[in-house]
Amino acid sequence: MAVQPRVPMREQNPAVRITNFMSVPLGYSSEEAVTEAKRCLQCKVPMCETGCPVRMSIKDIIKLIADEEFEKAFYLSKADNAVPAMTGRVCPQEDQCEGKCVLDKTGQPINIGKLFAFVADWARKKDILEQIPEESNGKKVAIVGAGPAGITCSVDLRKLGYEVTVFEALHMAGGVLQYGIPAFRLPRDVVDYELSYLEKIGVDIQLNKVVGQNVDFEVLKKEYDAIYLATGAGAPRFLNCEGEKLKGVYSANEFLIRVNLMKAYKFPDWDTPIICGDKVGVIGCGNVAMDAARCAKRLGAKEVSILYRRTKQCAPARAEEIHHAEEEGIIFKEMISPCRIFGNEDGWVTGIEMVKTEFKGTDKSGRPRPVNVEGSEFILEMDTIINALGTTPNRLFLSNVPELDTYSWGGIKVDDNYMSNIPGVFAGGDALSGGSTVIDAMGNGRDAAEAIDKYLNNP
Description:
Elements lengths: L13 H4 L12 H8 L9 H4 L7 H9 L3 H9 L5 H7 L6 H4 L11 H15 L13 E5 L3 H12 L3 E5 L8 H4 L8 H13 L3 E3 L10 H7 L2 E4 L5 E2 L12 E3 H10 L17 E5 L3 H12 L4 E5 L11 H9 L3 E3 L2 E8 L5 E14 L5 E5 L5 E4 L2 E4 L3 E2 L2 H6 L24 E3 L2 H4 L4 H20 L2
Parallel strand pairs: 1-2, 1-4, 2-3, 4-16, 6-14, 7-8, 7-14, 8-9
Antiparallel strand pairs: 5-15, 10-11, 11-12, 11-13
Helix pairs in contact: 2-4, 2-8, 4-5, 4-8, 5-8, 6-8, 9-18, 13-14
């Protein structure tokens, strides 16, 4: 029997969406979701599940959607994933579950991410919540950081009966889900609703609390049976080139925090101004670079260019994000690398010197290794430069806990059970990796919750 083609996702028209920050995908209707779910072959050995960092029961969830058992599908998805509406929108499914789908060989795997977003959205509209027993086992765990790893660890521990308190330095929980990902990829009503679930199940979230500064780490060690450090990787990597401190040069972190968390795109209704020029250059070609470029376009930039030292075929960004960026008129300038940034007498950016690159061999990741072509330097006129070269762990917390063993680049050292050199203090997420996907950080949070539970029951 021939497999039916994938049900296409309806989206905002590119010419319209570059004028707003509303969601680009418009979501499946119930009929579309059922039709898409029925394409699933229900493999005896569901390889899609081997690609899921939080170990979701993908095959059974899709079967329930195909049978129109949406409520059961929601409960089953929540059993392993605290925030399925968010991960359904931002996971790199093409490299994980969908990349393992046997239908991927035809080029049209099951649209797993969009199906999971559908069923979570359906439950939200019906106000259906997973119920968690309120009994306490009498033990307390503190979690530092309310990003994807901290959220997942807190929910899994709460399900096991622990009293959980989450300390978050910012005024909103969510970490990168709040400050890093624009609303046109991850609508804020979806974020707010899924995060409100934590308080509904009894997780105590303490906002504006910087552990190590206005919350004493030694006090936490005395008051809690275990601590999980999910402090993330919120510090930007810098170019370390001439002109980087000119006005009009942003790190992607700063640019996206201003736009997403501080609502600069709603200025002057929100009191966060942002200056985005007519000609914007974004250095890098990951998902963060795509987000920054597409935000700049929506802020009114006339010409936005991705400046990348490889080709976009080698880029770490999701294919879907590159596709959407191209639809929105983002220009890709490939095989070039920055040398220095120019400015005028008032200290504002006027251009960037780039050098052409060529491939010679491969690097440690197996990707083609770009090297500069001597004498090929040239100038691009720009009035805004956004550096999206990646992130490293934030040193603010680490500097206040000097007894914690870390690597020279700031990552926290842990053993095979995610415990640091301090007994009862665990760590995970981007604080270990220096930067990964949302779903990988969540998978790490799940593993850490299991390790903490084992430690507290077999100290």
